[in-house]
Amino acid sequence: MSDINLFGWKMGGPAGRTGHEVLSAVKDGAQSTLEDPQTQTDALRSADTLLWSYDLSHGHFEFKGDLRNLDLALLSGRVTLEDMTPVFASGEIERLEMALRAQEVHTAADLPGDDQVQCMLRLKDLRLVYFKGRKVARHLLLGTLTELSRDMRRVSRSAAAGSDLGLHDVHSDQLTGLHSRQGFLAAARTFLMREGDYDLVVGDLNRFRRLNEALGHERADLVLGILAQRLRDAFGETSVLARLGEDEFAVLTQRGFPRVSERMRNALERAIVVAGFDIHPTFSMGAVSAEGGEAALASAELLRRAEMAVEAAKSKGIGAVASYKRDLESDGLTRLALEAELRKAFISGEIHAWYQPIVNLETGVIAGFEALARWEHPKRGVIPPDHFLTAARDLGMMTDLGTIILSATVKCLIKWRAAYDLPEGFFISVNLSAPEIERLHLVEDVSRLIRDAGLPAKCLKLEVTESDVMRDPDATARVLDALRDAGAGIALDDFGTGFSSLSYLAKLPFDTLKIDRSFVSTLTSDASSEKIVRAILTLGRDFGLDVVAEGVEDATVAARLHSLGCGLGQGYGFAKALKSNEAEAFLVASLGR
């Protein structure tokens, strides 16, 4: 790059000095190395790093540093993303584009959010580079690009030679630098020798497997590294911090206020932008209290109790926290009993479809229903899905569950269409899990059901979540296209909470967006939630999609959604999920308004 004054440092001129020349200049009384522009340039070169700026309003990058040293001469001058395409491996520049576009959307809509850009990208020659930066003005981002391959080769060689750089102690986690499980047990043992009151919290990162599938292992590892650093920032050196397993972190520290679980959640559950994806990490947490001193509980036993509490938290739903209690000791046996009973429930017909109304917010008339699975246990009564869906997933029974709900829903549609004058566009939506999307004969089965029932287009709607779509976007697109051609409507559920990019709204055949209840429930109390809802409604209008707001709990929220232009609402404010005969009664009452 020749004679560009980008960050106050003028580029060009003679090649940079060697480290010996820099040290000699300092000894000779030259200006401080940190203030010397040439020394700064040398430092960038030695770190295999470039500085960059990106103009959001014009879409231009400028890079500063030794481009020739990194073999990136094509990035000289002002360059667009299109200009940069020849430098990167196929598809990689699109990831960077999505990260930048997210900043453009936040700027245009004045949305809150993480102003950082973080992307791990592969060059055409297979080297890895790490983009990192943040917004410093409304239309300006500044950051660094670091080429990582040289350091990775150095670590690899050191590991082979057995040096300390590459060969980590078994007590240290190689990826994050936190304690490993073995290291935690040893450190906790020493930590608990001191008198005092302590809390141990173990947090399990939800849906990490899907994150791995969506981003790849290298980018998922980057997320784990960021989470580990957040733990260090929040708890410092006065606590024992560990990565116990692939997606499990632990904090042992002195009891205080706020509670450790709250501090841990506040530290970890903030958005991360990686390769153009907005990652919103959530954790299921288990907590256990302990007294330090001579009578302190063994660290292994303390950890066992905390991990039992984690399992209890998972049974409550994503993002819950649970404390260890004695009655958890029987939960292992309880889970085995649950799984055995669940297998019998599928055979004996205890799994049923219930239906939650979806209402036109302008007229108040029923627009459709969402079918939801319920287990009607002969002795324990109705068991909600968050108590058995995890077990069904672990047992590989999600496709069986989907078949039951889909068949029941089509029967209801046949019955109600024959008996009542349903409003135009009436539909029932059914959730489609990841195993069902991947099922071999899904499209043929859905096509046959729609054809045999004589259902009009989009009368049967299939809902998919962002996280399930991102497991394999291209394969999912083919399946959803075929389902749409078969006559099914396609809805994107929980919009705004996963790690999809806006580009998939154009590429995938959605006709409906569902705003997640986390935004709707705080609509009237949180200005940020209203901005997000406004933005989603704008996206829906721009893409010609229907928008359903989930979690409508009262008339005030319903009225506010209607004033913002939202057409459909769903939630306890209208009705909970109803048995099929109760749903039919609700339908009749609504049609008779």
TrEMBL record:
Coiled coil: none annotated. It comes from the Bacteria. SMART domains: EAL, GGDEF. Residues 196-326 form the GGDEF domain. This is Diguanylate cyclase. It holds the Pfam family GGDEF. One of its GO terms (molecular function) is cyclic-guanylate-specific phosphodiesterase activity. Residues 335-591 form the EAL domain. InterPro entries: Cyclic-di-GMP_PDE-like, EAL_dom, EAL_sf, GGDEF_dom, Nucleotide_cyclase, Rev_trsase/Diguanyl_cyclase.
